[in-house]
Amino acid sequence: MLRKLALITVATLATIQSVAAFSIAVPPQEQRCFFEMLDKEDNLHVSFQVGDGGNLDVDFWITNPSGELVEDAKRSPSETFNHVAKVKGRHEYCFSNAFSTVTDKTLSFNVMVIKPYVEDSTQKVDPLANEIRELAAGIEEIIDEQEYTIARERTHRNTAESTNSRVMWWSLFQSGILFVVCAFQITYLKRFFEVKRVV
């Protein structure tokens, strides 16, 4: 029984060809492209989240082996794409910061290639194998959501720290202005009430 369970687990995990998480910086006026070699009916899952830089947005697209655009998003802070390959070959996906002239964009993204499950007609369908397969897919979704949440938390933390810093500097500036105004008023009032003697 244990051996059968181990074989089912290995078979289930073998349906997921590769899973990878990356963090990159895309300079202004540039793009970063990556590729996956897919067989027909493979599912390319790409999710990304911009964590730092400008308005927290990038352009994204996926092209098939003949260079045709199959998925795209313009100036998006985060997206998730599932593309089922219609043809075998090199599928390219790119992140572009071409519309920005000054700011680098830092983003993290996950890539997962899922091979279609082909049932063996000579063997009977094992309900346990189906459950394990569904469980593995659910775990991958949870991992993606966790990484998305971590990236969002980092973005919100950076925003909160920036806001705190601005409030602090604004308070110091106001205190300085108040001190200068008080000093001016005291000096002016002292001069106003000075008695001038004529000799």
TrEMBL record:
Entry membrane topology: Single-pass membrane protein; Single-pass type I membrane protein
PROSITE patterns: GOLD
This protein's GO CC annotations: endomembrane system; membrane
Subcellular location: Endomembrane system; Membrane
Transmembrane segments: 167-189
Keywords: Membrane, Signal, Transmembrane, Transmembrane helix
Domain GOLD as annotated: residue spans: 31-113
Name of one Pfam family that matches: EMP24_GP25L
InterPro entries referenced in this protein's UniProt entry, alphabetically: Emp24-like, GOLD_dom, GOLD_dom_sf
Signal sequence extent: 1-21
Annotated PANTHER family: TRANSMEMBRANE EMP24 DOMAIN-CONTAINING PROTEIN
Family the UniProt entry places it in: Belongs to the EMP24/GP25L family.
Listed name of the protein: P24 complex component
